[in-house]
Amino acid sequence: MRAISTVVDVTIFLLFVSAAVAVLTVAPGPDREPVAVDDRAALLASTTADVEYTLRASNRSAHGTVASLLARGAVANATIDGRPLSAGEDDYLDEVSNATHRTLGPANRTQVLVRWEPYRDAPVRGTVRVGADPPPGRDVTVATISVPAPVAAGVDSGDIRSTDGFHGVASVAARATAAALLPSGHAELPSGRESPASVVGAARLGTLADATGVSVDQPLARGNVSAARERVVAGLTARYERDMRKQFDTPRAAADAVSAGTVRITVRRWES
């Protein structure tokens, strides 16, 4: 995926974070005060960080708000039916986790959950978890922020509304998934000099193709990345359409659930 593998990172797509921070407080006991958490969420959205990491033995760096780095990590950590799309991002995720801990302070009372999915409960999704679950019986305060996902061609609400039926909605979600996860037609795939980007891109193409029942062997053998990508988009569209028909009563309900352009970050905090 270009977004995780290029030396010049994709945080340019992640500069803007929703200013609204939604806060939900689970009612504390009669002698306890709720723990402030919205300020912690705001810190993630406003604090910038630099992370140094390795991707398949290649030294890399990324810069952006901690929230944007977490969002990128969630997309990079994507799975389909629980199966990882590619390997090699562990060092990046570890470094972003460390940056999150530095930003929020002591981690023993805070957990950050990051989630990206093309639409609600889609078979493709990416998650990042920083910090342990709260101890049983503790009062937990929750805040959420929304961050733009590193999707090269974002999801346009007008495109979704103008689609025809479940197939049209599924096609929009599938193309947004490909934009976030797969190399473009101009990207290089493994050759005599394999780059980290090419290895990750080929792995994701292969895994998604296998999971959706399409073959990309011939186009990849010819070096035709665009054709391989289109086959995966077709496979994802068919898979998403079947899933949407089971989940949603109408195409409009499915369209309302599309969220490929957004990563949700939830901060949970509890009393000591």
How would you describe the overall organization of this protein?
A hairpin with a 2-residue loop joins strand 4 (78-80) and strand 5. It contains 10 helices and 9 strands. The protein has 2 domains: 2-151 and 260-270, no CATH class; 157-257, no CATH class. The chain is α+β, with helices and mostly antiparallel strands and 272 residues long. The longest helix is centred in the last third of the chain and has 23 residues, at 225-247. Residues 1-34 have low confidence and may be disordered. 42% of the residues lie in helices and 21% in strands. It has a 7-stranded antiparallel β-sheet. Strands 2-3 form a two-stranded antiparallel ribbon. Helix 6 (165-181) crosses helix 9 and helix 6 packs parallel to helix 10. It is globular and about 55 Å long.
Write the layout of secondary structure elements.
Layout: H1 2-5, E1 22-25, H2 38-46, E2 48-55, E3 58-65, H3 66-76, E4 78-80, E5 83-84, H4 90-104, E6 110-116, E7 124-130, E8 140-148, H5 157-161, H6 165-181, H7 196-212, H8 217-221, H9 225-247, H10 251-257, E9 262-270
Antiparallel strand pairs: 1-8, 2-3, 4-5, 4-7, 6-7, 6-9, 8-9
Helix pairs in contact: 3-4, 6-9, 6-10, 7-9
